[in-house]
Write a structure and sequence with these properties.
Elements lengths: L1 H14 L8 E5 L2 E9 L3 H4 L11 E7 L2 E10 L2 E6 L4 E5 L10
Antiparallel strand pairs: 1-2, 2-3, 3-4, 4-5, 5-6
């Protein structure tokens, strides 16, 4: 039931009006990941994703331990699955996603 309730919230947040307003973020200290609704277009990442699954992936960018990375993400159950350009992968619980406050 919890999964079913989270999916509409995530979809509504990503599909709301305005390009930057569609973004969601996760911040933990100096580390951050920004999720966008734009289709994944990074060739280095796409090569790491099964061709049949590529349409399900969207663009993301991350700053982790001071390094900037390009990634792509897809929703899986109650988490966001990330694939980074260097081959690293990760999961972020949907409950950690927030609408960014950009000033």
């Amino acid at each position: 039931m919890r999964t079913t309730a989270l999916l509409p919230v995530l979809c509504a947040a990503l599909l709301s009006a305005g390009a930057q307003a569609n973004d969601l973020v996760v911040n933990e200290g100096a580390d951050s990941i920004r999720f966008t609704e734009a289709a994944c277009s990074n060739e280095a990442v796409l090569q790491r994703i099964d061709p049949g699954d590529r349409p399900l992936f969207r663009s993301a960018s991350a700053t982790l331990r001071g390094q900037r990375y390009t990634a792509c993400w897809s929703l899986v159950s109650t988490a966001v699955y990330l694939v980074y350009e260097d081959g690293d992968q990760g999961l972020v619980p949907v409950s950690k996603l927030k609408v960014p406050v950009d000033i």
